[in-house]
Amino acid sequence: GAPVEASSRVFGSFLPCAQAAITVIRLPAMFPLKPAEVECNKRMGVSEARLRKWLLAISAFLRNQNGAVVEAVHMWKKNIDKEFEGLEDCLISIC
Predict the structure, then answer these.
(1) Which one, out of 13, 27, 49, 93, has a CA that is 20 to 30 A from the CA of 43?
(2) Where is the E3 ubiquitin-protein ligase listerin ubiquitin conjugating domain (predicted)?
């Protein structure tokens, strides 16, 4: 049969007030030789175009910066922080 390919996932969640954003970065077994997949399960009031821009930036960062996953998650958090600047303190968790 065909070989089964393992992968790892990095989840980032951001919970401002009553809204949530969950971003998933899937790392294939051959990462960084194969690209990571990045998706956001919830938009939380951000325009589709802006969200797409953020996800493409994370994907490009992972491809071009030696696969620095933690730095990619920090970049995502900075984008969200800028978007919701001035709102109440929020919780971010990485698991």
Answers:
(1) 27
(2) 24-83
Rg (CA), the chain: 14
Structure token pair of residue 90: 């929020």
pLDDT of 1 reads 44
Cα–Cα distance for residue pair 12/9, rounded to 1 Å: 10
> Do 23 and 40 form a contact (C-beta atoms < 8 A)?
yes
pLDDT in tens, 44-89: 677 888 888 888 888 888 888 765 788 888 888 888 778 777 666 5
Domain ranges of the chain: 7-84
What's the rounded mean pLDDT across residues 10-17? 60
Count of C-beta atoms within a 10 Å radius of residue 38: 21
pTM over 0.85, yes/no: no
Q: Which two tokens stand for residue 22?
A: 């969950």
* 32: preceding bond cis by omega (within 30 degrees): yes
